[in-house]
Write a structure and sequence with these properties.
Order of helices and strands: EEEEEEEEEEE
Helix content: under 10%
Radius of gyration: 13 Å
Number of helices: 0
Shape: globular
Number of strands: 11
Strand content: over 45%
Length: 116
């Protein structure tokens, strides 16, 4: 299984971006987005449970970010609205196989930069 993240870029504060995470191979049970800002530890952003579409988010992005999935394309999206400079980070998608609770699969990361 390989995860390919894309969609990052430079945007002004208040703007929007949509990140994509395309999964090749089999469908996985849970997908998540993490981010890592310079000099900081990797941070959980949100997660999507594939079979029922349920999502959860870290408090700092609630109401601004939305994770969704496209079953036909085997792709997970992170829609980011009302972006803030503190959202600047490298964003990674990750996934869990069925029957595990560990994120064994990781994408390569995509840079999101929010200017003030």
């Amino acid at each position: 299984v390989q995860l390919q993240a894309s969609g990052g870029g430079l945007v002004q504060a208040g703007g929007s971006l949509r990140l994509s995470c395309a999964a090749s191979g089999r469908t996985l049970s849970r997908y998540a987005w993490f981010r890592q800002a310079p000099g900081k530890e990797r941070e959980f952003v949100g997660t999507l449970k594939w079979n029922d579409g349920s999502t959860s988010y870290t408090d700092s992005v609630k109401g601004r970010f939305t994770i969704s999935g496209d079953n036909e394309k085997n792709t997970v999206y992170l829609q980011m609205n009302s972006l803030k400079p503190e959202d600047t980070a490298v964003y990674y998608c990750a996934a869990q196989a069925w029957g595990t609770a560990k994120y064994d699969y990781w994408g390569q990361g995509t840079q999101v930069t929010v200017s003030s």
